[in-house]
Amino acid sequence: MAGLSRTAREPAPAAPAATGAAAAARRVRPLRRLAAAVARRALMLVLLLALVFAAVELLPGDAASASSERGDSAADVEARRHLLGLDRPVWERFADWMTALPTGDLGTGARGQKVTDLLADPLPNTLLLGGTAFLLTVLASLALGCWAACRPGRLADRIVSHTATAAFAVPEFVVSVGLLLVLALWSGLLPAVTLTGPDGAPDSWTMLVMPVLALVIPQTGWNTRIVRGALADQARTPHVEAAHLDGLPARRIVLRHALPGAVPAIATGIATSTGMLLGGAVVVETLFNYPGIGSVLASAVSGRDTPLIAGVVACAGAAISLVLLAADLLRDGILGDHP
C-alpha cells in the first residue's frame, strides 16, 4: 500500500512545468494580439491605397493632360504620359509605388517634385491642427460625459445629451462659417484667414483657434454621447450598483468605479473619430486658408496626380491606424482575454 501511494503521488511534480508553460503562453499571447492588430491595420491601409490608385484611374483624363501647357500637341502629351509611366498598367504602377513605400519614398508628383518634399511643410501643420483638436475633443468629451453621468436623468444630463446630438449633427463647414461670422467679421476678435510665417507654419497661435474649434465642436458632440453611453452601461454592473447601495458620492462612483470599466468602449469610440477629424480638416483648412494637406489634396485630385494623392492618403492613414492600434492595445490590456 505504501508503494502504491508513492506511485500515485509521483506525477505531482509535473505541475510546476505545466504552470510554467501556461505562464509562458500568457506572456506570448499579448505579442500575438499585437502582431495580429498591426497586420490587420497594415492590410487595411494597403487595400485603401489600392482603392486610391483604382479610383484615380477611373477619373476622366490623367496627369499628363492635366499638367499640359497651352499649345502642347498630342505628341507632347503622349510623351509626357510615357515619362510619367501612365502608359503602364495601373497594377504595375501600384506595385512599384508600394515597393518603394517602406523606404519612405512616396514617389514623384506630376510636376516632377518628390511627394515627400511637397508634404514636408503642409503635413506637420495638419498634424498640429488635428492633434490639437483631438486632444481637446478627448478632454471635453470626458468632462461633459462624466459630468452628465453624475446627474443621471436630471436636467443637466438631458441638456448635455441634446446639445451633444445637435453639435454632432452640424457639419464642420457650417460651424466654420458661424465662427467666421461671430469671431472674425462681427467682433473682430480673431483673424478670418491664416497667414503663414517664413517656415510655412501659421504666423500666430490665434490663427489656430477657429480651425480647431470648427473640428472640436462636432466631434465633442459625438464623443460625449459615447462617453455617456459607456458610463450608463457601467452603471448597471454589480460593483457600481453596490457602490450606490453603500451611499458613495456620485462623483466618486463615476470616476473610481464606472469610468475604469468604460475606458475600452470610450477609447474605441474616440479612436474612430480620428478619421472624421482628419476628413473634416480638409474642409476646414480650405475655409480658413490653413496651410495643410487639404489644399495639397484638392490640387492633386484636380491634377489627377496619383502619387501625391496616395502620399496624402498614406500619411493620413498611417496616423489613423496608429490611433486605432493604440485603442486596440488599450482595450486588450484592460479586458485581457475577456470579451
UniProtKB/TrEMBL annotation:
Keyword Transmembrane helix attached: yes
Localization: Cell membrane
Region (Disordered), start-end ranges: 1-20
The keyword Chloroplast belongs to this UniProt entry's keyword annotation: no
InterPro entries assigned: BPD_transp_1_N (IPR045621), MetI-like (IPR000515), MetI-like_sf (IPR035906)
UniProt KW keywords: Cell membrane, Membrane, Transmembrane, Transmembrane helix, Transport
Residue spans of biased composition, Low complexity class: 10-20
Bilayer disposition of the protein: Multi-pass membrane protein
TM ranges: 34-56, 127-150, 162-185, 205-222, 261-288, 308-330
PROSITE patterns registered for this protein in UniProt: ABC_TM1
A cellular component term, taken from the record's GO annotations: plasma membrane
Family that this chain belongs to: Belongs to the binding-protein-dependent transport system permease family.
PANTHER family for this protein: DIPEPTIDE TRANSPORT SYSTEM PERMEASE PROTEIN DPPB-RELATED, PEPTIDE ABC TRANSPORTER PERMEASE PROTEIN
Protein name: Glutathione transport system permease protein GsiC
Native species: Streptomyces lavendulae subsp. lavendulae
Lineage, broadest ranks: Bacteria, Bacillati, Actinomycetota, Actinomycetes, Kitasatosporales
